[in-house]
Design goal:
Elements: E1 7-12, H1 18-30, E2 34-39, H2 41-51, H3 55-59, E3 64-66, E4 84-90, H4 92-99, H5 106-116, E5 120-125, H6 132-144, E6 147-148, H7 162-176
Parallel strand pairs: 1-2, 1-4, 2-3, 4-5, 5-6
């Protein structure tokens, strides 16, 4: 990917916490990185309920938008170079598809491409409590190379708002895969 903007795929699933994926798109845009977004049908409902923002508004944050059923999209192929992928939030349904290599939609397929090509894949799991089956598929995904990244706030930052916590969490998540940014407070 020499002489090319770093490309990042962002998937937003139907789990609660759509603001994490939205904030990731905002931060990546501010960092002048090329973004490709997939928004699941369930996420469209969650985004409306949780944020009141339109899907068109979220799509406009990305350079490219793909329907979740478009398995012919460039990001479905290992020959399309991208730096990594963030699934934020990641539902248990999507986690299960990724962990079991069940590429029934573009989110699972792009994640599978990330893993098979040795690219970064962050799964921001949004579920609690976890039962044994959840833990088993989390382990399967991690063994395949996924980074399991639940959105746990860093309370040492003494955030003044939920927005501060979201920004810090997403900044830390992006930093975890080597995307430098100043949106989080490191421990000191």
């Amino acid at each position: 990917m020499k002489n090319m903007k770093k490309r990042v795929v962002v998937a937003i699933t139907g789990a609660s916490g759509s603001i994490y994926g939205i904030r990731a798109l905002e931060m990546l845009r501010d960092l002048d990185l090329e973004t490709h977004v997939i928004i699941s049908k369930a996420a469209e409902t969650t985004i409306q309920i949780e944020t009141g923002r339109s899907i068109n508004e979220i799509q406009a944050l990305a350079d490219e938008y793909y329907d979740e059923m478009n398995l012919c999209a460039p990001i479905a192929s290992g020959s399309f170079q991208f730096y990594g992928m963030v699934v934020a939030p990641c539902s248990i349904k999507t986690l299960s598809a990724i962990a079991n290599c069940y590429t029934q939609n573009l989110i699972a397929r792009a994640a599978d491409v990330s893993l098979k090509e040795g690219r970064h894949l962050i799964l921001m799991i949004r579920e609690t409590p976890l039962h044994r089956g959840h833990i088993h598929i989390l382990d399967m995904a991690a063994r395949s190379g996924a980074i399991i990244y639940p959105p746990v706030p860093a309370l040492y930052t003494k955030a003044q708002s939920i927005d501060d916590m979201v920004t810090n969490t997403v900044g830390r998540m992006l930093n975890r895969i080597g995307i430098e940014n100043s949106n989080f407070t490191p421990w000191s």
